[in-house]
Amino acid sequence: MRVLFVSKPVVPPFQDGTKCLVRDIALHADRVTPVVLSTRETPALSDVHRVAASRVELVPVYSNAGSYAPAAVENLRAAAWVLARSRADVWHFVFAPNPRTSQVGRWLRRLRRVPVVQTIASPPRSFEDADALLFGDVIVAQSRWTRDHVLAAYAKKGLRSPDVRVIPPPVPLDLSRSDAECSRFRAEHGIAPDAPVFVYPGDLETSRGAEVCAELAPRIASAVPGAVVVFAYRAKTAGAEGVAERLRERLDPSSTRVLGSLRDVLALVASARAVLFPVDDLWGKVDLPIVLLEAMVLGVPVLAYDQGPLSDLEATRRLPVLDAEPWLAAVLELERDGARRGELIARQRAAATERHAAAVVARAYEELYFELFARGRPLHGRGGSADVASSAMKGSASSD
Fold first, then answer.
1. What is the mean pLDDT of residues 188-196?
2. Which pTM was predicted?
3. Which domains does the chain have, with CATH numbers?
């Protein structure tokens, strides 16, 4: 079976959830031939990642790697190729739902009558018009929160609900960074080799995360000798750099760093004492941000806000409030109780391996492709919803 992934160009650097999801499923699928949209300059995925990828076919549809969102002309180029040249048995659309792209996807599906899986790469700002954004025979949400909001939106309009499955985002398990790589990163940014580092890997302008960490940073510095809090961000809007500059002016430079567009954020995360994620707005991110899953694999404690999609982040330390003091107490508890810290790290690694490992998630998607192909008819609008349930998943998909 050939499965075409319809997404933005899958090219390095892999710093957003959409590209990572396509890459990881394609590299770990062993029962189908993945066809991935890319550029002429893109190296084989097996050359970039240490995974045998002989099945993966890269198609140079896009003229360039583009930015966070491909230009309209690039989207038209991809749509024309899918319409005229795709010979795949199943199409897998992976993108943040938006009216224009969804309309094109619906049109292509009707013309070619190919079974479609549609993964909600990141939740829309509003689910009010979910019926206009979703067109797949099966819809895949990456958290129970997103699934429930989709179903509620259909119910509110009195519409028959689509077939919605929950398959969590994947993460590779081979993420290790050497001591030399971690030391080099610290040296480049003036962080002492033995400094306890706490990382906030979130946006600066669309959630309360940066402000909560800004309130938390001086408290951590006072309580943990030599501690450094690092804001590792990617600009979501033109206002990000202004926020970054104000944070630099406001916070003590001896105990904080505000760093944007890092080449290898895992060289920072791998030697951190904890990752802090008090985020109440995940706009533009996958339901469970990949960097949090990577921290779990690397054995770095994750502290996250227990609301929205983040409530699906199993085995992590989740807090129900955004006040700085409870977050400080949670940080200090892990710093002072080695046994509790070790237990959290072990639980996180087990959850990442059983639920999010790229091979486990790829297997769940493969079962979905074969189910769609075997039925040979559209499933969208059948009604009801379900989570992926398979012995092969070993708990990797959510259930209530």
1. 97
2. 0.90
3. 2-170+358-375 (3.40.50.2000), 179-356 (3.40.50.2000)
